[in-house]
Known about the structure:
Elements: H1 11-17, E1 20-26, H2 33-43, H3 52-57, H4 64-74, H5 81-97, E2 100-107, H6 109-113, H7 119-135, E3 139-147, H8 152-162, E4 171-175, H9 187-195, E5 199-204, H10 210-218, E6 224-227, H11 235-243, E7 247-250, H12 252-257, H13 269-274, E8 278-281, H14 286-289, H15 293-304, H16 308-321, H17 326-344
Parallel strand pairs: 1-2, 2-3, 3-4, 4-5, 5-6, 6-7, 7-8
Amino acid sequence: MKLPAIAPDRLPALLAAMPKAELHMHIEGSLEPEMIFALAERNGVALPYASIEELRHAYAFTDLQSFLDIYYAGASVLLKEEDFYDLAQAYLARAATENVVHAEIFFDPQTHTARGVGVDTVIRGLSRACADARAQGTSAELILCFLRHLSEREAFETLEAALPFRDHFIGVGLDSSEVGHPPDKFARVFARCRELGFHIVAHAGEEGPPAYIWQALDVLKAERIDHGVQAVHDAALMQRLAAERVPLTVCPLSNQKLRVFPDLAQHNLKRLLDAGLCATVNSDDPAYFGGHINANFQQVFAATGMTAEQAWQLAANSFEASFAPAADQARWLARLQTTFERFAAPAEI
Ligand code: ADE
Ligand code: ZN
């Protein structure tokens, strides 16, 4: 496809306006401090923070685990179906304003079942918000994630409990503390999930080594790798990811806040694209990392000097990497073309 030339000063507005798919967003990570306090009050949950400001102040992370400790504590205010509905509804409304046309949303049932909340409560609330978003023109699906710091047995129990609601989620993933919990710990769980016909994704190579990405591909048969930025340390892996167009769902602000890179200017997103990988941009946990998907685009582009051509590639990759039907992908790609043409036109006076 021939790309219209875009003036560099129009790039930030183009990044915001272009249609895109979000493929790596933990719904619990969209819980803003304001909502944590509102839900704590609604549900009578005591918080170890006196104010919204004090809570926000605690968001100073040094690595993945330091974030996860606060993230799981924040999720403790989610108790009722309505809470899960409100959370997902708020995210999807925000995503629509950022021109997200399709979202595949992660949720962590074990974070909630450990507190006595039923899987049915979680899934019913989230699923209803997705249905409402679809009715308003945003495509939305759910992906159930297993917490990798817990056991294989607990993952199997979670799967069993969720199966009565299997029509409400399209895939399964693997998240939480990466180092020390390699993908092959869950080989049998994912084999069962594949038999059941679920799409497979897995966090790998966020902080963990390239070997975890190989395992996610070869053992779990992951169709996408979440993060995957450590792949650059293994040339053979990079070749495989490029040759097979295995998508990476990259989250620049997350990587910055969790110190995967010393700063955004040193992020390797451009290098991944240059190597021919199907990289995408996503927000991971927007309430904790300082921005939703468009902030991720804006800030990584500003820091690394990427161009409109790369913006096009990332948006097109997001459709290709999605589990949406080919006809929807083609429709979104056509909208991408129209948006670029609109931005190529001289600015109206
Ligand atoms: N759960 C929420 N965000 C995560 C991340 N960045 N890595 C692993 N697990 C997560
Ligand atoms: Zn994640």
